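Pipeline run #58 for the internal structure catalog. This entry was flagged by the ingest filter as a single-chain record with no existing model, so it goes straight to prediction. Upstream metadata was stripped on purpose; only the residue string is passed forward. Reviewer on rotation: M.T. Logging verbosity set to normal.
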Amino acid sequence: MRKITLEPYQTKVRTTEGEKEVKYGIKESFVEILFNPGLKLGGMALLKQNELAEKIMRSDGDVLLEEEEYQRIRTAIETVEGLGKNDVEFVRRILEAKEVGVQEK
């Protein structure tokens, strides 16, 4: 399994008043990349992506992903175009996600 931290982080955005620090919406960003048009999702793939998006939105702190789920997120982040400096930490959390062992209780 892979573990990804979902805690928001601070990033800077430019406004009409100058630069401002805001929380990066990491969960919302996951949803955006999972449904990126570049993935060309069909019906079944769309439903699977939706299940994964809902799992992420329900999670607090960290999310544990099965390897298949993680690979879908990796494919999405490598497909999406137009990422910027504010997305660096988001991409790092995905591409450098730690493998964790899980044991039954």
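catalog note: The beta strands are 2-5, 10-15, 18-23, 62-65, 98-99.
catalog note: The longest strand covers residues 10-15.
status: ready for reviewer M.T.
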